[in-house]
Amino acid sequence: GGPFPMSEKVLGILPARGGSKGIPGKNLRNLLGKPLLGWSAEALVGVDRIEKKICCTDDQDIADAARNFGLEIPWIRPESLAQDDTLVIDVISHALDRLLSDEKSSYSHVVLVQATSPTVTSEDIEAALELAVETNADTVITGFDAGEKHPARMFHIDADGSVSWFSQEPQRMVRRQDLKPVFIRTGLVYVMKTETIQSYGSIYGPDTKAIVVPEPKAVNIDVEEDFALAENYLRQFIG
Question: By the 8 A CB rule, do 49 and 7 touch?
Fold first, then answer.
C-alpha cells in the first residue's frame, strides 16, 4: 500500500440483535457478572484510537446495557436490519451512511467486534487496527493455528459411503510439522477500510491480513457449552 490517502478516523461497531435463534436473550446473558455483550463493549471502549464507538441494536434492553458500558446508541436499528438473515455488512453500511448524513462524518476504517466474542481485549483490537493502518490492508481478521485439524487430514463421505479427500495435496501421510500451517478464522475482531465496504460490498478486500491468537481464546458463543468455555478462559485473566 502507498501513503495513507486520508487521516485515520475510526468507527467502532458492536452489532447486537435482541432475537437469537440459538440461545434466547444470549447477548444479555450473565457471564461472570457482566451481560455477555459487556465484555466486547468494554474492549471496544478501551481503545482510544477509535473515535466513535456505537452499538447497533433493535432492542431497548440491549441499548441500555451497551450504554452502561460506554457505547453510544445513535439510533435503534430498523426492523429490516434486525432479521435472522440480516448480514453484518448491511448493518455496517447502514451505519456509515447514517453517520454521513447525520454528522457529515466520514470514517477511514471500521472496527467490528461481536457480542458473541467475549474474550476479545482492547489489546487485540489495537493490534488489528495497528496492522491495518501500518500495512494499508483492506481488511484485518483474526485466526488461530489449526494444528491437528489440518485440511490435509479431512475428507467427505459420499452417498455410497466412500471417502473423497477434501484436499488434493498428497500430504495425508506427512508428519504434521511438515505441513504448511493452516489457520482457522475467529470472529474476535475485524478491521476494514471504509473503502473496502463501499467498493466490494464485503468485509473482505483483496488485501487481507491476519493477527494470530491462541486457540483457547477463540471462543464464539453459539451454543450453551460455549458459555463454559468462555468462563474458563476469562477466569484465568480476571484472577
Answer: no
